[in-house]
Amino acid sequence: MTPTIEAVGLRKRFGKTVALGGLDLVQEPGEMLAVLGPNGAGKTTCVRAVATLLRPDAGELHVAGHDVRREPEAVRRMIGLAGQYAAVEPAMSGRENLEMVARLFGRDSRRDCCYWTSQPPGSTHGAGSSSGTPSDPWLMRART
Predict the structure, then answer these.
(1) pLDDT tens, 8-63?
(2) pTM of the entire structure?
(3) 88 contact partners, CB below 8 Å, separation of at least 6
(4) Cβ distance 61 to 15 under 8 Å?
(5) Among candidates 138, 27, 33, 36, which has minimal Cα distance to 93?
(6) What does the pLDDT look like over 75-102, one tens digit per residue?
(7) How many CA atoms lie within 13 A of 16 on its CB side?
(8) Which residues contact 90 (CB under 8 A, 6 or more apart)?
(9) Within a 10 A sphere around the Cβ of 50, how many other Cβ atoms?
(10) Cα–Cα distance, 80 to 102 (Å, whole number)
């Protein structure tokens, strides 16, 4: 089965700063992936590369079998990105925000692409908590 996300030796620099220093990662379909670490560890850089918002300097990165460098449009058709602070209405729950983003991408959020754990690992807030106190991380699955 094709991994949802596969990174091999992923590297990205910003000037002299190494944001990703050879990331290896495999997320299989149906698995949850939490990207955790201290500030400056490369979490946002990794997510931006997966979402084709920045181009890695080296290494390989595939999303649902599509190379992010050669097939960015195909990758964008397969994923949606809902940021932690992207809520239109602060009173919306995390699930409601993910479902809204799915609908904006033309998906039937109940059937196609959104799932939420009732209580993400390490969180005291579940899917029903408002975005004013978002659960870390917000989890979304790429439709593959």
Answers:
(1) 999 999 999 999 999 999 999 888 788 888 888 999 999 999 999 999 999 999 99
(2) 0.68
(3) 97, 100
(4) no
(5) 138
(6) 988 887 766 666 666 777 777 777 777 7
(7) 0
(8) 130, 131, 132
(9) 26
(10) 7
C-alpha 13/C-alpha 71 separation (Å) is 22
Amino acid 95: pLDDT:
72
> What one-character DSSP code corresponds to residue 133?
S
Residue extents of the structural domains in the chain: 5-78, 83-144
Q: How far apart are the C-alpha atoms of 51 and 121, rounded to whole Å?
A: 23
Q: Does the domain formed by 5-78 have CATH 3.40.50.300? A: yes
Place of tokens 């932690």: 84
Q: 105: closest CA among 133, 141, 79? A: 79
